Amino acid sequence: MAEPISRADVEHVAKLARLALTDAEIQDLTAELAGILGHNLCLDIFGGPSAEELAAGGSTHGEGSVVRYRLVADGTGLTASATFPLANLAFLRRIELRDTSVLISETVTNESAIDRPIGWTQHATFGAPFVKNGVSEHRCSATRAKVFEGSFGPADYLAPGEVFDWPLAPRINGGVVDLRRFSSAPASPPMCSEYSESCSS
Q: Which of 24, 22, 27, 25 is nearest to 7 (CA)?
């Protein structure tokens, strides 16, 4: 089983990225990233919490990666459910095997007395042996997307903050790149959010 991101992991990545982080910044990043492993349910936010939210117990991408889940297996399926106390949400995921397919369904219930917007994102991380750089493709029904507004470092090649028609993302120096194919570059940091109803890789 994979281990949560540790202080040593954060220090190692900071060194590779040539980031001069203070002890407090390393401690904060370790706390924020502690629940991230492979696939993340980002609920009810996407991204890092504010300093005030972090101090109140918030975590990167919300509570989905840090709350305890109740697991119930039955026949060909598994149900995972949890309560998110800070967001006041109830979450249920059902995973079911059907012949050669896997059906995944999710339900989120707002348990507060007010209607409010939420962020609900599937944050998947793909790598070897599932992905071959320069060959594997990410196919989805997205129509629009937006490049992350910040910088990930010197290897950035997409125009920050640009909204575009999926999958042709605008490059910093002009032209476009087809984001369906996984990059063969040694470092490929860009991140985009996509509007889609279903995805497959």
A: 27
